[in-house]
Amino acid sequence: MDKLTHFQEELIAHCHYRMDESLRMLRISLSTLTEDEVWQKPNASLNSVGNLVLHLCGNMRQYGIASLTEMEDNRNRDIEFSTTGGYDKTGLLKQLETTVTEVKQVISATTVERFLQKQKVQGFEFSGIGNCIHLVEHLSYHTGQIAFWAKLLKNKQLGFYAGVDLNKKNVT
């Protein structure tokens, strides 16, 4: 296997892993919240968990599907933040899981040429690699916000790494 192919496979594998990790943490976070808490806003300048999940779906479709496949970008970002209900936890999670699955399929099918090609997304110019990095970090960023809100509401740890010794030292 040549180095470029190996690099591409590693990039894809780690993007998938990080997206799956965020989904795992989001499932745990959402499981602790009531239906009302999903749409509760911490204050007027912050978003509800429901808004953040809708926002993640929109962003992932824009960066991970429309851009990487060069399909039409039909995202309506304002609706992601103005929605105040209409989805229960199960529906929100299903929508996010479906979106992540589709994005992972697109990333797996992305060619080296497309990974290197630059394209405008939201007014920024990114390569396909840049889009993938954005997808992973943006999902992780909002996963952390949702986890923080769940911990704050419930005053308990979520146990993301229960049973794992996070104090182990690196081995070379």
Give the helix/strand layout:
Layout: H1 3-32, H2 35-39, H3 49-69, H4 77-82, H5 89-109, H6 112-116, E1 118-121, E2 124-127, H7 128-154
Antiparallel strand pairs: 1-2
Helix pairs in contact: 1-5, 1-7, 3-5, 3-7
The name of the CATH architecture is Up-down Bundle
Overall 3D form: globular
What is the name of the CATH topology? Four Helix Bundle (Hemerythrin (Met), subunit A)
Taken as a percent bin, the fraction of beta residues is under 5%
The number of E-state strands comes to 2
Structural class based on helices, strands and sheet pairing: mainly alpha
Structural Rg: 17 Å
Widest sheet, order of strands? 1-2
First-residue to last-residue Cα separation: 24 Å
- Mean pLDDT equals 96
Bin the helical content: 55-70%
- Describe the sheet with the most strands: 2 strands, antiparallel
The overall number of domains is 1
**Name of the CATH superfamily:** dinb family like domain
Pfam families: DUF1572
Organism: Croceitalea dokdonensis DOKDO 023
InterPro entries: DinB/YfiT-like, DUF1572
Protein name: DUF1572 domain-containing protein
